[in-house]
Automatic annotation (TrEMBL):
InterPro entries: PP2C (IPR015655), PP2C_BS (IPR000222), PPM-type-like_dom_sf (IPR036457), PPM-type_phosphatase-like_dom (IPR001932). Its EC number is 3.1.3.16. Keywords: Hydrolase, Magnesium, Manganese, Metal-binding, Protein phosphatase. Belongs to the PP2C family. Its cofactor is Mn(2+); Mg(2+). It is an enzyme of class 3 (hydrolase). The lineage of its organism: Eukaryota, Viridiplantae, Streptophyta, Embryophyta, Tracheophyta. This is protein-serine/threonine phosphatase. The gene is LOC111306936. Residues 57-358 form the PPM-type phosphatase domain.
Length: 358
């Protein structure tokens, strides 16, 4: 289906090797061109070939296949370092928009409380406050907009603080590091994020251990494993119908209602967080939603970025993924470029690509 081809979001990013000027970048999806960067639209593509931020440069591309864009992303720079967020929404755009509006604000406030020091606990608290805030919003709107309870988003965050990189993830987006191989001129891929998708055996095992008395905690439907037969990801912001029993009832859509009582949350909002110290051979970072990785391996993606100029890195990744997706579906890539968003599949979807250079 077309939505499967078009659900990508990626950012390619390269920090400088020194402390450059700080450039605040709020709402990177909007705004004009900065620092000589080229941005614009090309069919379904929105792109920024290259842009500057506090500690480096970045390239970004979004492909929107339908009228409503469910995904959001941001890059922010300041005394705390650099904050990168990729929010791959599902069920509607509200959760991704809420996270884009609130997660960084919580992170910045918590960091300020600790005199600018960033830790894994800082990021975890920001995630927790964002989840609590969205749940409160669902409660507030329950009588008028009950389907807000069924909206959620994956959430991939990278924070560069001094020489340390933190990666925090909920859901199945992915961060990959491109590392130079000695003096050979080669490049190697290193996956940094842990994904939470029921198609991964380790995630199914985790869910079964957490819910030993529920034989239907993961269900195989049409060749795809889903939590309770409904959703692929096991962690997210939002999706409160799978976390709080009081929201898993009428008037939400019947397809989201569980037949048995919910004794404990089924989905989690606890991110997996890792940290590492940058090495001189670390070359660039790729942040992308699951759609990109369905069609490009980690190795193929880093090779594309490494083998071409910085400008346009993200757009090249998206084009390569779409070409591969079209090949698998026996479509022509040129046909994808002619798609009318108003005539696409009913569920809105997008491709965003961001590449950051280290």
């Amino acid at each position: 289906m077309l939505q499967g081809l078009m659900n990508l979001l990626s950012l390619c990013f390269k920090p400088f090797g020194h402390d450059g000027e700080n450039h605040e970048t709020n709402g990177i999806l909007g705004g004009g061109s900065r620092g000589g960067s080229r941005e614009g639209k090309d069919g379904l593509f929105w792109f920024r070939d290259i842009g500057k931020y506090g500690s480096g440069d970045f390239s970004m591309t979004v492909v929107q296949a339908n009228q409503v864009l469910e995904d959001q992303s941001q890059i922010e720079s300041g005394q705390f370092g650099t904050f990168v967020g990729i929010y791959d929404g599902h069920g509607g755009p509200e959760a991704a928009r809420y996270v884009c509006d609130h997660l960084f604000k919580h992170f910045r406030a918590i960091t300020a409380e600790s005199q600018g020091v960033v830790t894994a606990e800082t990021i975890e608290r920001a995630f927790r406050q964002t989840e609590e805030g969205f749940t409160a919003l669902v409660s507030e709107l329950w009588s008028t907009q009950p389907n807000m309870a069924t909206v959620g988003t994956c959430c991939l965050v990278g924070v560069i603080y001094q020489q340390t990189l933190f990666i925090a993830n909920l859901g199945d987006s992915r961060a990959v590091l491109g590392k130079k191989v000695g003096n050979t001129g080669g490049i190697a891929a290193m996956q940094l994020s842990t994904e939470h998708n029921a198609n991964i055996e380790a995630i199914r095992h985790e869910l079964k251990e957490l819910h030993p008395n529920d034989p239907q905690i993961v269900v195989l439907k049409h060749g795809v494993w889903k939590v309770k037969g409904i959703i692929q990801v096991s962690r997210s912001i939002g999706d409160v119908y799978m976390k709080h029993e009081r929201y898993n009832k009428e008037p939400i859509n019947r397809k989201f209602r569980l037949p048995e009582p919910m004794n404990m949350p089924i989905l989690s909002a606890n991110p997996t967080i890792i940290s590492l110290t940058f090495h001189p051979n670390d070359s660039f970072l790729i942040f992308a939603s699951d759609g990109l990785w369905e069609h490009l391996s980690n190795e193929k993606a880093v090779d594309i970025v490494h083998s071409h100029p910085r400008a346009g890195s993200a757009k090249r990744l998206v084009e390569a993924a779409l070409q591969e997706a079209a090949r698998k579906r026996e479509m022509r890539y040129s046909d994808l470029q002619k798609i009318d968003k108003k005539r696409c599949c009913p569920r809105p979807s997008s491709i965003q690509s961001k590449c950051t250079r280290t």
